[in-house]
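STRUCTURE:
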């Protein structure tokens, strides 16, 4: 599955297993908690190598952050693929960047 996961698929996956819009405040609190855990893992450089598992506590915490960010987007009906492209174009103009974000990749 290397390189084949789209943001759209992530949104569909998270929504299928965990979609409770009434808990959006709880999702936000979990996101905040996971950001704190990521900060701790980075500060302590918590890396570990185990055959057949996620190789890093940092990687695990990054996924948790992404998961709850996606869950929140789902609660608010936000299409992240569309939002990413729109926001990157605004940033490109604002910061005078030449590199354009390519959609459909």
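SEQUENCE:
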């Amino acid at each position: 599955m290397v390189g084949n996961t789209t943001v759209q698929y992530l949104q569909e996956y998270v929504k299928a297993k965990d979609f409770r819009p009434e808990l959006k405040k709880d999702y936000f609190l979990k996101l905040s908690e996971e950001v704190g855990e990521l900060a701790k893992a980075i500060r302590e450089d918590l890396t570990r190598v185990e055959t057949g598992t996620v190789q890093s506590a940092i990687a695990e915490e990054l996924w948790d952050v992404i998961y709850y960010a996606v869950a929140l987007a789902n609660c608010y009906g936000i299409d992240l693929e569309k939002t990413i492209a729109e926001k990157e174009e605004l940033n490109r103009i604002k910061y005078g960047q030449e590199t354009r974000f390519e959609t459909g990749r």
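REMARK: The first helix runs from residue 7 to 17.
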